[in-house]
Design brief:
The structure holds 2 protein chains of 2 kinds.
Chain A lengths: L4 H29 L6 H11 L3 H18 L1 H10 L1 H23 L5 H27 L4 E2 L2 E2 L9 H25 L2 H32 L1 H8 L3 H5 L1 H18 L5 H21 L2 E3 L3 E2 L7 H28 L12
Antiparallel strand pairs in A: 1-2, 3-4
Helix pairs in contact in A: 1-3, 1-6, 1-7, 1-12, 1-13, 3-4, 3-13, 5-6, 6-7, 7-8, 7-12, 8-9, 8-11, 11-12
Chain B lengths: L2 H42 L2 H35 L1 H35 L6 H30 L4 E4 L2 E4 L2 H5 L4 H29 L5 H35 L1 H8 L12 E8 L4 E8 L2 H7 L20 H30 L7 H9 L3 H15 L4 E3 L3 E2 L9 H32 L26 H7 L16
Antiparallel strand pairs in B: 1-2, 3-4, 5-6
Classes of the chains: A mainly alpha, B mainly alpha.
Chain lengths: 335, 483
């Protein structure tokens, strides 16, 4: 005994969601950047950089949902009921975005602009509603008798709209720096130009959320600004500043992988700030991972599979990225 | 929760899952078919197999994408719409779903990229391995989700502690009484539905006078599958029915529109009728004496409980499942008939000449999918009023959403699904109508409905293999300038 199954599962789910944010983040970012790249050839290259991997990236979102249901069914039930509308809108966005990968190559000329718009609109909607759901989650979810006790529109607040817009910026930056890594020539230069305002935008978003969150959530403020926590958390903003500065420096030269790795770092830091603010609550602000746990028979059974299989998944995912390594050029696409 | 809201929640689930199940069914069948085609190509090096592989791969790609996005909705809907069920039984269904994601979804997604786009990037062995992994993933996926669904039908291996399900024996949970039958029935159904779709595609081209080797090959392969599998499905279906009689007799009574037994008499089989839940009778019944006993008890005068032996609030809706079941069985019999006809034609060496056979095969194209839907309606509506049979009622499972938000989301789902999946179905039909073409770079592009290779016409016969996902595929840098 002594194995804290709930703790291990919380780590696995946090890892899964982080993988999702990072990986589907740059896929969605490409859709978000579509309106700023009107040329068809550029768009085809952009889509082709992620066509072989987007489906695997999105699977991390399914793992997040399934892991939550397996390990913390109460949290799955309550959080998903509370965030009903934003999650449904997110799913609808992902539907349009997902089918557009194939449809924009299968449609005839008249329909193709529609699926281009579906790709862009679906990506923006999915990112925005994910961010809005995250904001609403941060603000807390009222629970009575193991069920959501709020109304259908409680999720919609100025804060959640801001976090929604913030995530759109974050994903756009990930997509933009991914394209710097995967393309060359005019498209790459354009992305370098886009990356600068996006980086500044994301830094601004992080600053605003860092001020707004403690102002509106006294629990979180107390956690941040009490000693000794303050010393433990202090590196996060310092690292954000350092990563942002390095990213902007990179854009002055002829960058390759650097901006992408640094923007991954920025997103990761923002994500860890989120974890610090909530831990160990799984239904903020009160219900902890231990209170929401499935019976140990369920957590233990699923854990065996997770620990054995996730490393294998990471290996063949890495192999797939390796097969499709290198720059994607116009016309040579897989489509 | 109002009964209107419950009904809307059920319609929303039924609507989204009805669309969803079509795609995985075709995915399961096509993935295995593609693995067979690629194996044949590697063994024989006959180009007909490679051309068919690339032809069906394009269709597979479109279908797979639709399966992914519609499946994502399902994974979240259990929480958004059925939160009390998730809180109550998530300890069982959650780990099963988690295993499906870990062992199946990632496997499919991880190797799909190489399968679709890696023909010229990895060696033939590794590419074949990727195809096999995707096919394996679809079968593993079906196994887990059917374990979960079967557990809801015939729960086992659990206790209820503090008002929630606690699994006590995972082997018993997974291998619950109806699981083997349900898995076999659905697995075969997926192969059948795919064979019918492939067969109809071949038939359509044969009817239009295209007798190319690829068209003939796919028609022959599909009909061969049908001959073997359609009768097998009847056998498995019968065993599944007997299993249902043992564990969910009320469902069987509803399927048969059987209200009560006459003392000492065998149960007739009602061929036609309209079960009336209010009047507790089946109107306009057209019955064959004793046939019901013969089919369900395999004896002349065996009896099984009628609907009247259950309290009214525990009866599934016989009016619906009586008919969905008959649609499924009727289509199954037609599939057997098509298989036999094709076998006879083959024996007489007239498989590619009988226009009547081709027309029949064409009309039977969607029959497998319709039968799958009808079968699922039968088993799911037949499980009512329970969500976990005998343990939790559906009415207690739904999230307490109001009518307004449920109506709005249902409306958006309906519009989106018809638009998106309607377009997808259209694109699939168009890809099928183009037909298998020799891959560019390996064979001349002459003949057929070929268009000049122009990127402005992505669906023309020649260029579709450039714009299709399969594509770049056979393109070797030396012979193919690139799309």
């Amino acid at each position: 005994m002594g194995i804290d199954l709930a703790l291990i599962w919380a780590v696995i789910i946090l890892f899964g969601i982080m993988m999702y944010v990072v990986m589907d983040g740059f896929d969605l970012g490409i859709g978000i950047l579509f309106p700023f790249t009107p040329e068809r050839e550029d768009r085809d290259v952009m889509v082709n950089t992620v066509a072989p991997v987007w489906d695997g990236n999105e699977t991390w979102l399914v793992l997040g949902g399934a892991g939550l249901l397996a390990a913390f069914p109460l949290a799955y039930a309550v959080v998903l009921s509370a965030l009903y509308l934003p999650l449904i809108f997110m799913l609808l966005g992902l539907i349009f975005r997902g089918v557009a990968f194939e449809f924009r190559f299968k449609a005839d000329e008249r329909h193709r602009p529609f699926w281009d718009r579906a790709f862009a609109g679906g990506s923006i909607a999915a990112a925005f509603f994910q961010g809005a759901a995250l904001g609403a989650y941060l603000q807390g979810i009222p629970v009575t008798e193991r069920a959501y006790a709020g109304g259908p529109m409680d999720w919609l607040t100025p804060f959640s709209v801001f976090t929604g817009a913030g995530l759109v910026v974050a994903y756009a930056l990930l997509g933009c720096t991914w394209l710097i890594l995967k393309t060359e020539g005019g498209l790459q230069r354009r992305m370098c130009r886009n990356a600068r305002p996006l980086t500044l935008g994301l830094l601004a978003v992080i600053v605003v959320i860092s001020i707004w969150t403690p102002l509106s959530q006294s629990d979180i403020a107390q956690r941040w600004f009490s000693l000794p926590n303050l010393f433990w958390f202090a590196p996060v903003p310092l690292l954000v500043a350092a990563a942002g500065w390095a990213l902007l420096r990179q854009l002055d030269g002829t960058p390759h992988a650097g901006p992408f790795l640094l923007s991954l770092g920025l997103v990761f830091l923002g994500y860890s700030g989120l974890g610090i603010s909530l831990w160990p609550a799984i239904i903020p602000p009160r219900i902890s991972i231990w209170e929401a746990s499935a019976p140990p028979q369920s957590q233990g059974f699923a854990l065996v599979g997770a620990l054995l299989i996730i490393p294998i998944i990471l290996m063949y995912t890495a192999w797939s990225y390796y097969v499709f390594r290198g720059k994607v050029r116009a016309g040579e696409g897989y489509h | 929760m109002s009964s209107d809201a419950l009904l809307l929640a059920r319609i929303q689930f039924g609507f989204t899952i009805s669309f969803h199940i079509i795609f995985p069914a075709i995915t399961i069948g096509l993935a295995s078919y593609l693995a067979v085609l690629e194996a044949c190509w590697l063994r024989t090096r006959e180009t007909v197999y490679r051309d068919l592989y690339h032809f069906w791969l394009r269709i597979f790609a479109v279908n797979f994408g639709m399966g992914v996005v519609s499946g994502l909705v399902m994974a979240y809907q259990f929480g958004t719409n059925w939160s009390y069920f998730s809180d109550f039984a998530g300890s069982v269904t959650g780990p099963l779903l988690a295993y499906e994601v870990l062992t199946a979804f990632f496997l499919e997604a991880g190797f799909l990229g190489v399968m679709l786009f890696g023909w010229s990037r990895v060696g033939p062995g590794l590419h074949f391995f990727s195809t096999v992994m995707v096919a394996l993933g679809t079968l593993i996926s079906a196994t887990w989700i059917l374990a979960s669904n079967s557990w809801m039908q015939t729960p086992a291996g659990y206790e209820i502690i503090d008002g929630r399900v606690v699994p006590t024996d995972w082997l018993a949970v997974i291998l619950n009484p109806s699981f083997p039958y349900r898995l076999a029935h659905m697995g075969i159904a997926a192969f059948l539905a795919t064979a019918l779709m492939v067969g109809a595609s071949g038939a359509w081209h044969l009817l239009r006078g295209d007798r190319s080797p690829a068209v003939r090959k796919m028609f022959a392969m599909a009909m061969g599958m049908l001959v073997l599998v359609a009768p097998l499905q009847a056998l498995v279906g019968d065993m599944h029915g007997l299993n249902t009689l043992q564990h969910q007799p009320a469902k069987i009574a509803a399927i048969e529109g059987h209200w009560q037994n006459e003392p000492g008499a065998g149960v007739p089989l009602t061929l036609f009728g309209i079960p009336d839940m209010e009047q507790e009778t089946t109107r306009y019944a057209l019955s064959v004496p004793r046939l019901g006993s013969l089919i369900l008890t395999h004896s002349w005068d065996g009896q099984f409980p009628g609907l009247k032996s259950y309290p009214a609030q525990d009866r599934p809706n016989s009016t619906i499942v009586f008919w969905t079941f008959r649609i499924m069985v009727g289509l199954g019999l037609l599939m057997i008939a098509l298989g036999l006809w094709a076998a006879w034609a083959r024996w007489r060496r007239r498989l590619y000449d009988l226009r009547g056979l081709h027309r029949f095969a064409l009309w039977m194209g969607p029959a497998g999918l319709v039968a799958i839907l009808a079968g699922w309606y039968t088993t799911e509506i037949g499980r009512q009023p329970w969500i976990v049979y005998g343990v939790m009622r559906t009415a207690d499972a739904a999230t307490r959403h109001g009518v307004p938000e449920l109506s709005v989301t249902l409306g958006i789902f309906v519009i989106t699904y018809f638009l998106v999946f309607g377009a997808g179905a259209l694109y699939i039909l168009r890809l099928i109508s183009v037909g298998p073409t020799p891959a560019p770079g390996h064979a001349p592009l002459s003949g057929g409905p070929g268009e000049p290779r122009s990127p402005a016409r992505p669906l023309s016969a020649a260029s579709s293999s450039e714009t299709g996902p399969a594509n770049g595929a056979p393109a070797r840098p030396t012979t193919q300038p690139g799309g």
